[in-house]
Amino acid sequence: MGLPLLLRVLPLIALRSSASGDTTAAIGTFADVNTECKTCPHSLCPNILAYEQGESANVTCWTRGTRIIDTTLWLRSTSDCYVTEYDLNDNITDYTSALPYCGPDSEDEVLTLEDATLKYKTECRICPSISCDTVTFLKEETDVELTCWTPDGQVIIDDPYWMRTTNNCYVAQKNLYSKPDITNLDPCGPIPYLEIEKHFNENGTSDIDKRDAAPEPEVFAPSYLINATVGEDYALCRSCAKETCRVKRRYMFDQEVWLQCLVNTNGTWWSETTDFCYVKNSDFWQSPEGDYYRNPLCEYFEEPGTGPGDGDD
Ligand SMILES: *[C@@H]1O[C@H](CO)[C@@H](O)[C@H](O)[C@H]1NC(C)=O
Ligand SMILES: *[C@@H]1O[C@H](CO)[C@@H](O)[C@H](O)[C@H]1NC(C)=O
Ligand SMILES: *[C@@H]1O[C@H](CO)[C@@H](O)[C@H](O)[C@H]1NC(C)=O
Ligand SMILES: *[C@@H]1O[C@H](CO)[C@@H](O)[C@H](O)[C@H]1NC(C)=O
Ligand SMILES: *[C@@H]1O[C@H](CO)[C@@H](O)[C@H](O)[C@H]1NC(C)=O
């Protein structure tokens, strides 16, 4: 993993005094990749800590939880949270003989859940920022189940809140019909920068903890709502991304319009707005196809052959 040599020392066995006065062996280890230390040993549990690659941790007992690739083993750290063995230094081969079992209660999965529906096309990301990989592309009207919230995501228009879904990825609160009642949901805790390359969970056992594979195209092009301002006397918003399509709306000069995604029709760029109609990008002061980081194509959200502009004119 290209870790500094200094980190490649033998795991040290430390002695830690427990509350009852006897001593518990703790094994010193470190995170192989950025990872999360959770309230329970399951991928969907909220985080207590975020470990950076190479960060050290002392673990005191083992338990069983979500299968990550090839292991169901999770370790409890001295910070009273659980981290998957898969993300720890793999030089320690036998945690189960070196450490005690944490006990049957430690295997419980305790989650808060709340239903929500997406108002707009939304990418569900592995962490709550537009620089994070997209796990799945979700269309407007998709029902999702939320498990936790974070106030520290990337600001979308004016809202930094993101929610983790039971597909183990994050959607921006701005993309939901309404703000969920977060008093009924756990905070997600600190979230490290994660990458699908290092945190896919192929062959995981439990569906609920598994991230769905991203559909085509394989190029991850994140989406988010962006605002643009009409730079012409008015801008027509059409039922599809062609001059011949029916006019659904008319936006005024200097009006701020929120955009979901891009369509290229014969070399001309259009944007789908949050009114679900299409404006030519040349009608805006900004250039939505060029000025914004990783603004996605609308077709990424469609089943092949049902993309915008395939009818409705
Ligand atoms: C793994 O452990 C062995 C001895 O148990 C040691 O020689 C080796 O350097 C260790 N490698 C890493 C990457 O820690
Ligand atoms: C792990 O335990 C060692 C020895 O007690 C201590 O020096 C170190 O700070 C601990 N590391 C963490 C991350 O708790
Ligand atoms: C998942 O299972 C398939 C089929 O058994 C296997 O080919 C693949 O290598 C496995 N993936 C991982 C990451 O272990
Ligand atoms: C978009 O909204 C943000 C936050 O309200 C604002 O700072 C920014 O100037 C707006 N950009 C445009 C192009 O309207
Ligand atoms: C694209 O351009 C070609 C050639 O100029 C034309 O035949 C075709 O009708 C155009 N398609 C659309 C959707 O405008």
Structure description:
- With 313 residues, the protein is mostly beta strands.
- The strands form six sheets. Strands 1-2-5-6-7 form a five-stranded antiparallel β-sheet.
- The model is unreliable at 1-22, 205-211, 213-222 and 305-313 (pLDDT under 50).
- It folds into three domains: 5-107; 114-209, SH3 Domains (SH3 type barrels, Roll), CATH 2.30.30.40; 226-295, SH3 type barrels.
- Helix content is 3%, strand content 35%.
- The longest helix has 4 residues, at 95-98.
- The radius of gyration is 23 Å and the shape is elongated.
- It starts with 12 loop residues before the first strand and ends in a 33-residue tail after the last strand.
- It has two helices and 20 strands.
- The site of one 2-acetamido-2-deoxy-beta-D-glucopyranose has 6 residues, from strand 5.
- It comes from Karstenula rhodostoma CBS 690.94.
- This is Sushi domain-containing protein.
